[in-house]
Amino acid sequence: MSFKDYTKEEQNRIRDMFNFLDKDNSGSITIEKLKMGIIGLGGELNNKEISELQSKSKFFKFEDFINVCRKKKIDINEIEKKLLKAFSLLETREKGYIPSSSLENLLRNDNVSESDIAKIINEAKPDKKKNIDYQNLVKDIMEANSDDEENNNIKNEENNNNKEYSEE
Q: What is the pLDDT of residue 124?
């Protein structure tokens, strides 16, 4: 599976993930960011794979990121299923929701700031009993990602149009 084997939408998601990780716009990311990106796209790197990558380089370009995605056979469409599975692990009573306190504890364990936790919980829209319907939350996350992608496409189109005008 090469990069061109991914649909245009999947290619954009991979590119967006890389750009998100490349905060300084240097065109390269560290092994830690590469690992986070692969996890963010629904994959996982084991210790052996990480060691092999680290022995090759300290920094990884977009092409390297694509190659890892291809090698790991990252299926972008599996993200929603994996999110649902992750939330279902928190939800042990099989009622379709989790207490907001469970999500808060999970986020605290990942060293997320209290203000970010509050934002996330607020965006998760807990009900009056402070429960979060995780299927709706995953749906909202996926819609937000697709909205972000659409906004990025609009910005890219505007930038391209601006370049055309400035070159005339």
A: 80
What pTM was estimated for this model as a whole? 0.49
Residue among 80, 81, 124 nearest 102 (CA): 124
Q: What is the mean pLDDT of residues 138-165?
A: 56
What do you get for the CA distance between the two ends of the chain, in Å?
A: 40
3-state secondary structure at position 95: coil
Give the pLDDT mean for 61-82: 77
| Alpha-carbon distance values, 95 to 9, 49, 52, 86 (Å) | 33, 38, 43, 15
Whether the pLDDT of residue 35 is over 60: the answer is yes
H-type helices in the chain, by residue range? 8-21, 31-40, 47-56, 62-71, 79-90, 100-109, 114-123, 134-167
Whole-number Å distance between alpha carbons of 70 and 104: 34
CA–CA separation, 163 vs 93, rounded Å? Answer: 55
Separation CA 51–CA 36 (nearest Å): 15
Domain annotation for the chain: domains and CATH numbers: 3-74 (1.10.238.10), 78-142 (1.10.238.10)
Q: What band does 1 get if pLDDT is binned at 50, 70 and 90?
A: very low
